[in-house]
Amino acid sequence: MRFFADILDTVRRRGPVVHCITNYVTVNDCANMILAAGGSPIMADDIAEVEDVVTLAQALVINIGTLNSRTVEAMLVAGRRANSLGRPVVLDPVGAGATALRNSALQSLLREVRFAVIKGNISEIGFLAGEDARARGVDAEDASLVTEGSLKGASDMARRLSDSTGAVVVISGAIDIVAHAQGVWTVRNGHPLMARITGSGCMSAAVIGCCLGAAPEEAPQACLCAVSSMGVAGEIAAENMVGMGGGTGSYRSLLIDAMSMLDGPMIACRADVKNG
Description:
The chain has 276 residues and is an alpha/beta fold. It has helices spanning 6-14, 27-37, 50-56, 69-85, 100-112, 122-128, 151-165, 200-214, 219-241, 248-261, 264-270; strands at 17-21, 40-42, 59-63, 89-92, 117-121, 135-136, 139-140, 168-172, 176-180, 183-187, 273-275.
């Protein structure tokens, strides 16, 4: 495996264009995080232009957080076009299992679009894997969060979904899991404040898009780079809050700041990534 931390420096050099069809709650944060990582965001969701926009991009990120019938069709059109061009596609199945609309949209997306990466919390990934996972809005239930005790079961579930879809599967949480045919990795970076702001998961998917756009042939390594980068940025943001008296709004800005100042050597120094 190529040293995954190098990929962020590749992002900085290549500046990949990342096309996001994402939710309106976090769209600005995702755009700013892509810029902070070194990419260039395009946040276009009109069906009349998504094929043209995908043609300009190096990666496509599909996030179903604020789904509607219009955007479902745009996602399908964009995803099929990205596949035809060989562009990697990331799926963030926000709220999977919560409503009939989401479940129907996910069935269509998984049937018609080939995804390089599927990234979600354990509840969302569990639903896609056919497990007894219950969605609670866009968050995993506390009882189903990845812990040291549940790590093996969650890793096995991620590996099964990866085997059935061909995608790298990322489970986000206090412990992040990256699973693929090449193996399963855990990432133990991050800070509890990341769960106190809206959009940290959406931003993580956007950074995965950046890393994939820069290294499309190295999807597992790109995911490890993106997930560890977000975690390390979360730690640095919390450290920078000490003594300033800030709250969660300050933390959100500091998280983006921290990402903008990361580089490969910093990630290599701080990343807590283990195989298995």
